[in-house]
Amino acid sequence: MMAFRYLRSRRREAFISIISWLSFFGIMLGVATLIIVMAVMNGFRTELLDKILGINGHLVVQPQDTDLTDYNAITKRVEGVDGVTFVVPFVEGQILASGAGGSSGALVRGLTEESLKKLKAVSSKVLQGTFSDFDASEGVALGSRLARTLGVVVGDKVKLISPNGAVTPMGVAPRIKAYPVKAVFEIGMSEYDSTFIFMPLEYAQAYFNQEGKVSAIEVYVEDPDEVGVLRAPVEEAVNQQVFITDWRFRNVTFFSALEVERNLMFIILTLIILVAALNIISGLIMLVKDKGNDIAILRTMGATRASIMRIFMITGAAIGFIGTMAGFILGLVVCLNIESIRQFVSWMTSTELFSPELYFLSKLPADMDMTETVSVLLIALVLSFLATIYPAWRAATLDPVEALRYE
């Protein structure tokens, strides 16, 4: 009762009340900011991981001494390994793509229709056209951003120019060939949507002078985190000299940078909560000084030091608890509506807050991790509680005689 009465200030205690409100808002905004930033960074990592692993294999088998000519037999053997979901042999090469609206560098990947349909990140994101009869169509599938750059739609023709063409007495002549656009897809990652062109495997082999062989074989597994365990069984199933890399090795710099940034942001934003906790200390110290006479009277009436300490600890802890819960609710609401908020702010300011070209993703993601969120709440509650100890101890050790001497 006493603790909550002290939270409701009278007119002469307005300044103390202002400090309490500042502490409340500081903790609320600190907790909300920390939850939102961590959720956005988690979502950013998850979305990037899904997009990268959705179109690139978890393990990549590349030829070392001999070409991968028996890729069909290798595919069947590797698919028999426990933990492997499917295997995709492909031919890959860089080209210059040209259309009615312009030209751009691109990466052609030759796949069979069966393999392409297994890549749900591509086959489930078709905006125009279809992948039906892809093997026999002699057509290509483009990313949506690349299609806009080239100014083509389904049915138009796109010209592919490769520097590695036919060998002539005058040297290597560039290979130029036009293909009809059979489908346009949008993975949601700008780097892929503006780069990838999928072509039937047979035609890609002919275009890149790799008849009867493939550039590499991608292996997709049930649990991407277990690629280290599956490397040896896959190498044994291939049964020839090959070079095997996994997704962690190929993207180690990128994801390590994300992890470092995420940890630093957590530490930096925790300082906001610490500053708010220091406001609790200053507010309680001023409250103890203002309530010195009340404390002395309570002590003379029989209140123990422990009870006085409890009063002020509850007062400060209440500010921290309510601020933490309010911050959690605010952070949850923002995370659930993060993309709508981004679009609204972009519309209000007439600016692009989340450029797909810079951040690779077309939407701002947010993925709240339960363990991380609970950690943020516990940190805020612990800091708020620790902030009450010194002011409460000062109140408990106040000498009643000294406090009432001049009354």
UniProtKB/TrEMBL annotation:
<feature type="transmembrane region" description="Helical">
    <location>
        <begin position="374"/>
        <end position="393"/>
    </location>
</feature>
<keyword id="KW-0812">Transmembrane</keyword>
<keyword id="KW-0813">Transport</keyword>
<keyword id="KW-0472">Membrane</keyword>
<keyword id="KW-1133">Transmembrane helix</keyword>
<dbReference type="Pfam" id="PF12704">
    <property type="entry name" value="MacB_PCD"/>
</dbReference>
<dbReference type="Pfam" id="PF02687">
    <property type="entry name" value="FtsX"/>
</dbReference>
<feature type="transmembrane region" description="Helical">
    <location>
        <begin position="308"/>
        <end position="332"/>
    </location>
</feature>
<feature type="transmembrane region" description="Helical">
    <location>
        <begin position="21"/>
        <end position="41"/>
    </location>
</feature>
<keyword id="KW-0449">Lipoprotein</keyword>
<dbReference type="GO" id="GO:0042953">
    <property type="term" value="P:lipoprotein transport"/>
</dbReference>
<dbReference type="InterPro" id="IPR051447">
    <property type="entry name" value="Lipoprotein-release_system"/>
</dbReference>
<protein>
    <submittedName>
        <fullName>Lipoprotein-releasing system transmembrane subunit LolC</fullName>
    </submittedName>
</protein>
<feature type="domain" description="MacB-like periplasmic core">
    <location>
        <begin position="20"/>
        <end position="232"/>
    </location>
</feature>
<dbReference type="InterPro" id="IPR025857">
    <property type="entry name" value="MacB_PCD"/>
</dbReference>
<dbReference type="InterPro" id="IPR003838">
    <property type="entry name" value="ABC3_permease_C"/>
</dbReference>
<dbReference type="InterPro" id="IPR011925">
    <property type="entry name" value="LolCE_TM"/>
</dbReference>
<dbReference type="GO" id="GO:0098797">
    <property type="term" value="C:plasma membrane protein complex"/>
</dbReference>
<dbReference type="GO" id="GO:0044874">
    <property type="term" value="P:lipoprotein localization to outer membrane"/>
</dbReference>
<feature type="domain" description="ABC3 transporter permease C-terminal">
    <location>
        <begin position="266"/>
        <end position="400"/>
    </location>
</feature>
<feature type="transmembrane region" description="Helical">
    <location>
        <begin position="264"/>
        <end position="288"/>
    </location>
</feature>
<comment type="similarity">
    <text>Belongs to the ABC-4 integral membrane protein family. LolC/E subfamily.</text>
</comment>
<keyword id="KW-1003">Cell membrane</keyword>
